[in-house]
Amino acid sequence: MSAILVAENLTRTLPGEVPVTLVRDVSLSIDRGEFVVIKGPSGSGKSSLLYLLGLLDQPTSGTLTLEGEPTTDYDEDRLAAMRLAKLGFVFQFHFLLAEFSAFDNVRLPMRRLGRLPADRQRQRALQLLQDLGLAGHEHKRPSQLSGGQRQRVAIARALANDPPIILTDEPTGALDSKSSINVKDILKELVRSHDRTVIAVTHDDHFAAGADRQVEIIDGRLA
Amino acid sequence: MQLHLDIAWSHLRTRRRQTIASLLGVVLGVAFFLAVSSLMRGSELDFIARLVDSTPHITVSDEFRDPNVQPAVQRNPDAAVSVLHVKPLTERRGIRQYKRRLEQIDAMPGLRAAPVLIGQVIFSFAGRDEAVTLSGIEPARMKDVTTIEDDIVEGSLEAIDADPNGIIIGRALAQKLSLATGDTVSVVSPVGNVRVMRIVGLFHTGRAAFDESQTYAQLTRVQALLNRPNVANTIIARLEDPYDARTTAARVERLTGYKAVSWQEASEDILSTLMVRNVIMFTVVGAILLVASFGIYNVISSVIMEKTRDIAILKSMGFRAGDIELIFLIEGLAVGAAGSVLGFLAGSGLMWVTGQVRLAVPGESDPINLPVYWGGGQFALAMLFAMLSALAATYLPARRGARLAPVAILRGAA
Ligand SMILES: Nc1ncnc2c1ncn2[C@@H]1O[C@H](COP(=O)(O)OP(=O)(O)OP(=O)(O)O)[C@@H](O)[C@H]1O
Ligand SMILES: [Mg+2]
Fold first, then answer.
1. Per-residue pLDDT tens for B240-299?
2. Domain assignments of chain B as residue spans, ordered by start
3. What is the CA(A51)–ligand 1 centre distance, in A?
4. What is the pLDDT of residues B335-358, one digit of tens each?
5. Do A95 and B319 touch (CB under 8 A)?
6. Which residues in chain B have Cβ-Cβ distances shorter than 8 Å to A80?
7. Distance from CA of A95 to the nearest CA of B (A)
8. Rounded to the nearest 5°, which phi and psi values hold at A221?
9. Domain boundaries, given as residue ranges, for chain A
10. What is the CATH number of domain A3-222?
């Protein structure tokens, strides 16, 4: 299998009077279609690493190559363009736009990318919502949906532009156990049914057990 | 773009009360701007119109721009010796060959001229002596050049042609001396000539000093009375476009050699007062719009504060800083544009209402409507100013919002 994401000696230090190193010298290669779980104690730097892998943050040193493209010298706009087309995020809190319906939230990335014509975008949004068991809820606002439903809308939105990589940060952390099992099943299903890479930060050992690989991070370093 | 508009609109829509409040700020700013500036401009134009109407556009007098220089000084400008107390040669004052000058001026396009001989005389009536100004005029030409005919309240201007001893005086002076049309009065000139003249007309301009001291008689009659045959000492001219007066006056001066003063030059003090008034007005209305732009700044800033999470969502999704900035700029400009249009309507309404107000003005017998200026320039200016202040108010917070790093927000929220 070919590597889709290669991190070499990633270090991220926050500047300041007392500089804080969030991630220290992490090297990691993730294959296409692989399901990788990042584990570790609270405050160990899991989220920080995920932000680096997801091009949301730039490393202080080290390199990151996504689908063969070295991204280290990219400016904000090019990174944004890569996030738009190649990455999908699902965070612990649902992070939907409150003023937009589920349907409109899912369409957002497609409208920004503009790869599909408008009618195909609508079809795809409806299809994704239906796949995630949200048929009939398309026109509800986030406030009218349950926590689990919102998280599924967020997953649908992450999938909208059909990105090769999905990154999630404790997507079930804020959910009750039943919704949480449901959301995790969906994520596992994502990996199985499509040729999609999933990188998930989780505390949940049961969820982690289903992964192709578990990576543990302690004090910003790979254990 | 449609996407940015949708997001911007969703922000404004869900903050309805704040949006309306900031919108009202712009509406009021634009409306007051228009109301104040239309009234100021209107009254200024009205004032200038009256000024232009009541004063000659160009006055050619029997003087020269530079006072007479003694021949000795002219010849030796840097001489070390100067002769003091030299009495200038007694000269015959007046515009020489005024008829030729008149023809010259008349020949210039858009210009009509009338000769006047102005002198001081004393009215003697029922034991009272009153010093007045007597202007010798040619009624036919005078009518073309001044509005004096409109101010005649009794008799007519031509009556002085019909009756060589006729004289027209102000109604105020007539009342002061208990004179009425048809009465006769002794007129004594500085050279000692005495004529008995008959009052054939009364005028009333509303300017008290003028009404009490100005009188008119036939030009040849006044020439005889003042012992100055075939002389005029002033030529007054009227232009089709009064705003040409400055340049035309300069041309007349070059042509005739005599000092020619435009109405602008004559009223420079008043015009500069108007300038100051305009500066004050624009400062005040500018301040109103500035306050309105603080309203916009406020709403955009608070949207951005509330929406930091949305900014992180959009940016992590792949929106660029420029997208975010555009969204907020659209919001500010939308408030500015909607405020401009509504302010345009509200301002027009306000202007219409002010235009209906009738005021009794001293010197005017009938109440007059407040003068409202409807020129398009001020509408464009108000709206441009509103849009610019909206843009300025939005620009800084929009940039700040656009530059927020998504991780900074995510770290704070997670
Ligand atoms: N802005 C900051 N300034 C200083 N230290 C920070 C800042 N943000 C994070 N940290 C520190 O960096 C470390 C790594 O944080 P990170 O959020 O990556 O941990 P995590 O493994 O995701 O923890 P959790 O499981 O609780 O989410 C923590 O010790 C945290 O206190
Ligand atoms: Mg974390």
1. 888 888 888 888 888 888 888 998 888 888 888 888 888 888 888 788 778 877 877 887
2. 2-52+270-413, 60-77+90-263
3. 11
4. 889 999 999 999 999 989 988 888
5. no
6. 315, 318-321
7. 6
8. -110, 155
9. 3-222
10. 3.40.50.300
